[in-house]
Amino acid sequence: MGLLPDTVHELINEVLLKTLVYKEIFGKLFMNPWWYLDGKMSPTDEGDETFSARLQHLYDRFYEINPLMASLWRSETNRLVNSANVYQAASTLLGTYHKDRRESFVDQFVNDTLSVEPIRWLLREPSSKEDVDQRDKRLRRIFKMAVEGAALMGNIRGHIDFEGLAELPETFTSVDRLNKRVVAHEYNFLYDDHTRLDGGRILMAVYPGIVRRYTCARQDRITEYYGANVVVGLPKGEEVQK
């Protein structure tokens, strides 16, 4: 019996590779929202590499005390350090500095990602220098969008959590799909009006879901989901012989 849908089974290397790249992106950027802050105490100071972790710990302590006000502090802090145009703040010096600083790390992120051993195993061997250049160019573009996307997400109101495979339900349901908690992978070929995958086991989260709470005083009990992209195994009765 095979749990994987046929297309996922045939293109498993592609699915795994995308999952590993997303893991790098989310782990380095989205789940570490203060990563680009240098922690300098003066313009001539060398900075502190532990600053982002210390700031995250401070936020976590604030959140324990008052989730709503802590969430507001988090988003306003992000907005202030990211104000890179006159519509956001009177002075754009700090925001421009951080934008340039984020972009300066893109090449390092690309190199780090390509050096991850499982990713190296899954990448096909390039046949020419042109192939290498094209691959690096595409990955650089992905990370450039990701560093700015993560910074923009840091500006939004509310407390942000992430749901990977460990946090998601074991099985796929239409209720979770309609609530936007999960989105079936494109190779599951699920149409909007289908319940075909209900009861199928969630085998893989290609990228995690985003959960937003405490967006304002009257919405402290409202949870918004931006669905995890999941590969769903075939439900009972649809398993195919491999």
Describe this structure in words.
- By secondary structure, this protein is mainly alpha-helical.
- It has one domain (6-232).
- It contains 9 helices and 6 strands, in the order ααααααααβαβββββ.
- The strands form 2 sheets. The chain has a 3-stranded antiparallel beta sheet. It has a 3-stranded mixed beta sheet with strand order 2-6-3.
- Helix 3 runs antiparallel to helix 4, helix 4 crosses helix 8 and helix 6 crosses helix 8 (129-155).
- It is globular.
- The mean pLDDT is 90.
List unreliable stretches of 5+ residues: none
Helix/sheet category: mainly alpha
β-strand percent reads: 5-15%
Strand order of the largest sheet: 1-4-5
Biggest sheet features: 3 strands, antiparallel
Bin the helical content.
40-55%
Radius of gyration in whole Å, from Cα?
21 Å
Number of helices: 9
Number of domains: 1
End-to-end CA span: 6 Å
Topology as H/E string? HHHHHHHHEHEEEEE
Compute the number of strand runs. 6
The gross shape turns out to be globular
Mean pLDDT: 90
